[in-house]
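Submission checklist for the structure archive. All mandatory fields must be present; incomplete records are returned to the submitter.

[x] Identifier: ABC-type quaternary amine transporter
[x] Organism: Antrihabitans stalactiti
[x] Residue count: 394
[x] Sequence attached
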Amino acid sequence: MTDITGASIRLDGVVKQYKGTAKPAVQKIDLDIEAGHIVAFVGPSGCGKTTTLKMINRLIEPTEGRIFIGDRDVTGEDPDKLRQSIGYVIQSGGLFPHWSVSKNIGAIPRVLGWDKARIAERTEYLLDLVGLDADTFRDRLPKDMSGGQQQRVGVARALAADPPVLLMDEPFGAVDPITRVRLQDSLIAIQHELAKTIVIVTHDFEEATKLGDKVLILSEGGKIEQYGTPEEILAKPANAFVEEFIGSGATLAHLTLTRVKDVDHNPVVTARVGDSSREVINRAKAAGATWIVVVDDQGRGRAWPSLDEVATKERISDYVDPRLPTVAPSSTLNDALDSMLAASQGGVLVTDGRGAVTGALTIATVMAVIRGQLSDARADEEQVTYSDHTEGTA
Ligand SMILES: Nc1ncnc2c1ncn2[C@@H]1O[C@H](COP(=O)(O)OP(=O)(O)OP(=O)(O)O)[C@@H](O)[C@H]1O
Ligand SMILES: [Mg+2]
């Protein structure tokens, strides 16, 4: 793991009562967030997630209490200065519409007086980090990009001045489910590289368990119902509210807790455009494969033809399959199943942080994991019955 560049966050008796309201939106909250961790805030609409988040960068002023970042009490700091050291990402990316991508990303560095060369270098680095090709996107306007691409720029912009803390308010709420999984996996990869402290607000408990080292479950008035790791919360919901909130999600929770990197992958045979089909088929047969993956210079998948399809041409064709299903090591088994279903395929390709194909995961593997977990769960139940019984007779 990289050095932690994030800072801890502490909320100490923080209250927010909006003017003209009878009850506080957030009643006295105490919270410790460890440096280098991702914490996900979840809870029903109106429970105070956004209010709590915005008090950390003082877009909303607390009515009472103190907030520390590292060991700095930031409650008395100049809010504009403070916000230069805290990245902030909102749902639709929040980009300035009339500014190019590079102008958006350079916004805070310009305020901080960085020179042009340093800003340009930082912009290249960040675009690459969030998985966008700098030459293609540097001069684009936000309106000429997809929602997912805009969201990636939003993350790059928030990271521009290398802040120790990143706050994200439902950043992936407005994109389709497959893009959402990709963005989540990018965020996990970025976090592995940078080790910032990230607070992310989401409506979705599954997203919270996937992203959060810890999950904070809030109810109305910013009341903490439970704060713990996803495993702790799923194994031991603190109360009826939490149980209800995680609800039916809990049955499939194992699929969320188990990551692609935790299960065995099938090796894949790769080939490049223009390779001799006969040579590739021989290599695939020797490896016992019935299909291959055509990859580009960076090892990213282009298509995955069967050997029969390969045999119809003398050389590997330059066809690009637009629906090639891929997952990252940090994807959950649930994400993997979703991608298979969306592409109507019995498997997915596994890629590394930069998109290069490293193997494949088949539906058979996923099903075997589910069956294993179901029988483990049943064995646990039997054990409980058995020990109850022996206690009863002792
Ligand atoms: N400026 C304001 N003035 C008065 N009340 C407000 C203001 N902003 C928010 N509230 C109230 O404070 C409570 C918490 O709002 P907040 O936006 O923090 O909720 P949330 O958990 O982020 O909800 P959602 O999931 O819908 O985004 C709500 O009851 C809301 O109506
Ligand atoms: Mg909100």
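[x] Structure attached
Curator remark: The radius of gyration is 24 Å. Residues 45 and 203 are 8 Å apart (CA to CA).
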